[in-house]
Amino acid sequence: MIKIEGLTILLGSFHLKDFRIEIAEGEFHFLLGPTGSGKTLILESIIGLHKPKKGKIWIGEKEVQTLPPEQREISYVPQDLALFPHLSVKENILYGIRAKNHSLKTYEEYVGSLVQVMKVEHLLERYPANLSGGEKKRVALLRALAPKPKLLLLDEPLSGLDPSIKFEIQQLLKTLHTSFHPTVLCVSHDFEEAYLLGDKMTIFIDGKVEQVGKRDDVFLKPRSKYVAYFLGLKNLYRGKVLTKEDMDRRWILGINGLRFSVPASAWEGQAEIGKEMDLYIRPEEVMILREGKSVKESLKRNIFEGEILDITNRGRHHTVLFQTIEGRIPFEISIPNYAFRNLDLSVGKSVKVALRDESLWVME
Amino acid sequence: MTFRYTMIGAAIFIFIFYFVLLASLLFSASLKGFWESLLHPSTLFSIRLSLIAATIATLLAVAIGLPSAYALSRFEFRGKRIVDTFLEIPIIMSPIALGASFLVFFNTPIGETIQRKGIFFVFEFPGILLAQFATIAGLATRLMKASLDEISPRYEAVARSLGSSSWQAFYRVTLPLSFRGLLASVILSWAKAAGEFGATVTLAGAMPGKTETMPVAIFTALASANIEKAIVLILILVFLGLVALYAVRFTGKIYRYD
After folding, report:
1. How many Cβ atoms sit within 10 Å of the Cβ of residue B12?
2. DSSP calls for B13-45
3. Which residue from A300, A298, A302 is spatially nearest to A331, judged by alpha carbons?
4. What is chain B's Cα-based Rg?
5. How large is the angle between the packed helices B41-74 and B175-194, nearest 10 degrees?
6. Are A52 and A65 in contact (CB under 8 A)?
7. For strand A151-155 and strand A184-188, is the pairing parallel, antiparallel, or unpaired?
8. Do A68 and B161 touch (CB under 8 A)?
9. What is the pLDDT of residue A137?
10. Which residues of B touch A47 (CB under 8 A)?
11. What pTM was estimated for this model as a whole?
């Protein structure tokens, strides 16, 4: 278990107060935040390159915040990789084992299997200047993992790569994690990357931890509108709790004169009448109803009539911009291509939409 | 095209300017006189003295300059800007003023104490070392700092996370990566020390067979109208300088990792 408690960093204009994070052994944890939010500085403080004002860092049972970097057993892959240009790939990979004066024989089998998984056998005698971007990433990851660190820190590992190489490295990271189970803390601003690779994530905005949770919990249940904005979520509306019904199992949220019936499970707290809340409608869970087709009873609570303002073909799916007639609330609906073809939609067409309970999420 | 020719013309002018200067030396010397002057014991002494003094002064400048350059390149500390500015002292002070300052210093109680302890600088060999060291220490530090600045501190960060101490990260990673620039700094500093005149003549004097380095010997040869000897020494200094400059370019070709 990796535990950081009360980490406080004051460096120039950057102020971080009481940062905490817990990473279970073998977990792939993402620290997600906008560019320039100080994530790299947190990583560098964990390694020991910056002395934090206060705070404690545990690697397993060992408290390491007073130890120099070389005694912390944390490997680090910076964004620019920093492969040693004067050493061959093989020498780069073995650097950590040699620096720690460990016997190469003890690591032979382990490093051999890493080399195999990372597919770098043919690169061992080359120098970093003669490697492609993807190859450099693979070697940097291998070099970091070779000395069997207790924690692997990755700084934006997929940034600056072509889409095809990005996909390849993503797959490799997945394979690496499944095969060798390193404990990883990865810094990124890319939620998609975190969603694909991470077990758990910490959303870090403006020097504050906004949410910690498993990837689906964060994506489907953002705790604040800041998290929702960061995740790039659309369809956020401010409303007021008007009443409760069905023995408090549902609330009615009023937005621009429209009444949305929201299940109590769509928020983790207790709603009070008159309280102002943010409603998030998940674009991929909204249904456009076909004319004349019967609708399930559960969907009848939230049916709205409106007009299609815009349609965008996004390749893998279509985005329809819909606006309700009453209240004139616009929201985006994401539709799979096959459904789009069956619905015969066009700009200006009047349609009815139904909101599934799963499409609604409420934030304070 | 006028723009292109103007620029290239300026570069060719500089070349011709120096070339004519050097050619005039060759034109003025006779071959017989050249060998006689070159093999004269006082000339050989000046050459030997200059090479030894410049080498020792350069080693001293590197010994203090390299850690200073590293500190200025990598760390933030109070007074860093003042230290950095003081590296230019030998550039803004004329060499004679630098030598004169040493003469004044050795007349202060601290200076007198140092000389009383048995290390004599005024009109002695250590005076040559001190004058050359003072002239090149700032330059060597500035040049080495520029070389270290080119190496990303992330290399060291990674090396340390992989288990190297800060000393190990320095000599296993930073030193090899900046070696080309550091070597060039050392060579240029050595060439500058070998050609140093003002501070040396002021502090160590121009005593034949004792403190007469090559530049000082050129001055005394000219003063005594021994033109042959002056030309020989000038040509040797130019030759050493050109070899040093070629060595700088050669190191640039060998130690390239990109």
Report:
1. 11
2. HHHHHHHHHHHHHHHH--HHHHHHHHHSHHHHH
3. A302
4. 21
5. 140
6. yes
7. parallel
8. no
9. 92
10. 157, 160-161
11. 0.81
Between CA A65 and CA A205 the distance in angstroms is 24
**Which positions in chain A touch B152 (Cβ < 8 Å)?**
80, 82
Would you state the pLDDT for residue B6? 94
CA A92 vs CA A76, A85, A98, B94: distances in Å: 13, 9, 10, 48
How does DSSP assign A84-148, residue by residue?
-TTS-HHHHHHHHHHHTT--HHHHHHHHHHHHHHTT-GGGTTS-GGGS-HHHHHHHHHHHHHTT-
Distance separating alpha carbons of residues A90 and A108, to the nearest angstrom: 12
What is the DSSP-derived secondary structure letter of residue B115? H
Per-residue pLDDT tens over the stretch B23-53:
898 888 777 778 888 888 989 999 999 999 9
DSSP class of A67: S
The number of helix segments (H) and strand segments (E) in chain B equals 14, 0
Q: Which residues of A touch B167 (CB under 8 A)?
A: none
Residue of A nearest to B180 (CA): A86
Q: Do B168 and A99 lie within an 8 Å CB cutoff?
A: yes
Residue A152 φ/ψ region, left for φ over 0, alpha for ψ in the -120 to 50 degree band, beta for the rest: beta
| Closest CA relative to residue B231, chosen from B1, B6, B60, B27 | B27
Q: Is A60 an interface residue toward B (CB < 8 Å)?
A: no
Q: Are B25 and B235 in contact (CB under 8 A)?
A: yes
Residue A67: partners with Cβ closer than 8 Å, 6 or more residues away: A48
For residue A129, the chain B residues in CB contact (below 8 A) are: 257-258
What token pair was written down for A91? 């020498």
Radius of gyration of chain A (CA): 25
**Does B154 touch chain A if contact means CB atoms closer than 8 Å?**
yes
pLDDT in tens, chain A (364 residues): 899 999 998 887 778 888 999 999 999 999 998 888 888 889 999 999 888 889 999 998 899 999 999 999 999 999 999 999 999 999 999 999 999 999 888 898 999 999 998 889 999 999 999 999 889 999 999 999 999 999 999 999 888 788 888 888 888 899 989 889 999 999 998 888 888 899 999 999 888 899 999 988 888 888 888 888 888 888 899 999 999 887 778 889 999 989 999 998 888 777 788 989 999 998 888 999 988 788 888 788 899 999 999 999 999 899 999 999 998 999 999 999 998 888 889 999 999 999 988 889 998 8
Q: Which chain B residue's Cα is nearest to A95?
A: B162
Facing residue for B173 by CB, picked from A44, A84, A127: A84
Residue A253's nearest CA partner among A325, A306, A329 is A329
